[in-house]
Amino acid sequence: MKKAYYGNFGGQFLPESAMFALNELENAFFKFSQQKKFKNELKRLLKSYVGRPTPLYFAKNLSRIYGHEIYLKREDLNHTGAHKINNAIAQALLAKKMGKKKIIAETGAGQHGLATATAAALLGLECEIYMGAIDVQRQALNVYKMELLGARVNAVENGLKTLKEATTAAIQTWVNDIERLFYVVGSVVGPYPYPMMVAHFQSVIGAECKIALKKLNKKPDYILAAVGGGSNAAGIFNAFIKDESVKLIGIEAGGLGIATPYHAATLSKGKTGIIHGMKTKVLQDDLGNILPVHSISAGLDYPGVGPMHAHLFESKRVRYEAISDDECMKALKLLCKKEGIIPAIESAHALAFLEKLCPTLKKKSVIVVNLSGRGDKDIQTIREYKKGTIYG
Ligand SMILES: *Cc1c(COP(=O)(O)O)cnc(C)c1O
């Protein structure tokens, strides 16, 4: 099997004109990511700029409620508020080493756009962000932040005007100006080498988590992470994947329920297909048209998923479950009230699975939840929840 594949999934499904750039990127990644100078520079930025290592926090109150030992990996404490910066800053650094002057990126809720704009400002790169026109309206604050950081935000007016269309527009722009641009992909998606590269840059989450648990003399029984494209999950799973005694669970967006058309549960309900340069599980109709997706969480609202997750799903190494908007919002409020932490709505999907998992466990277990981001960006959505405006 080619290294570009995870089992039956992955590959490079882009026009011939993009192959040169993908090869160039693959070579640059292997060259620089193994260089001591690059590694030290990245390590320094992750420490002094991003704020790593992030704590592994023992959630005492949550543990008491659920009757198990629950730890939170605090990616919400990163600069810009989520795990996305780990990858954005690493790719921007790689772009700089490759001599590129300009980076572009897609964004849905705006978190990856914000992280990329931040990295561009830091490293002195020009930056342009592609964002669906509806998301531009919904996430006005993030748009303003990106502009404040010096990036240009392009509103994409095609189709449903959300993340899928923004990604398509970013790919097109890149393919048309491939020598000059570096495309910073925001999750473990897209054509090879992106899924492998993003997983590598996010693996710092799991590596830190493993060290922190070891210091506490603990072995995890379960690790939970929300899955949109799958990068925070890939990041924390990576350190534990070889140890079959650690059970890994990815949580998808169940929206209004996976029996309805209003969800983004790609692995629960998708079929094998091609999207954004990769072969993976895709939410599609019988003709292969990509279906509209729906979730209260803009960061999970994507009809595809990283190819490694499609493979981990098929090989059954990782279990994938869907959590509905209502279940997620209940868990979000519980964390606010009991631990004093406002999580991102994406992360609250992973938290919500505790409610289902814990009562089924026979022995007292150690459970780690990857708290991928903080809820500041979601305050308006949380306020409007149940007022009938979020699905308008
Ligand atoms: C973007 C985002 C996600 C989903 O993306 P993955 O690539 O699946 O990690 C999850 N949580 C937060 C806070 C995000 O910003």
Automatic annotation (TrEMBL):
Belongs to the TrpB family. One of its GO terms (cellular component) is cytoplasm. This is Tryptophan synthase beta chain. The beta subunit is responsible for the synthesis of L-tryptophan from indole and L-serine. Tetramer of two alpha and two beta chains. It comes from Campylobacter cuniculorum DSM 23162 = LMG 24588. Keywords: Amino-acid biosynthesis, Aromatic amino acid biosynthesis, Lyase, Pyridoxal phosphate, Tryptophan biosynthesis. It catalyses: (1S,2R)-1-C-(indol-3-yl)glycerol 3-phosphate + L-serine = D-glyceraldehyde 3-phosphate + L-tryptophan + H2O. Gene3D superfamilies: 3.40.50.1100. Pfam families: PALP. The gene is trpB. The modification N6-(pyridoxal phosphate)lysine is found at residue 84. One of its GO terms (molecular function) is tryptophan synthase activity. Pathway: Amino-acid biosynthesis; L-tryptophan biosynthesis; L-tryptophan from chorismate: step 5/5. Residues 50-373 form the Tryptophan synthase beta chain-like PALP domain. Its cofactor is pyridoxal 5'-phosphate. InterPro entries: Trp_synth_b_CS, Trp_synth_beta, Trp_synth_beta/beta-like, TrpB-like_PALP, TrpB-like_PALP_sf. It is an enzyme of class 4 (lyase). Its EC number is 4.2.1.20.
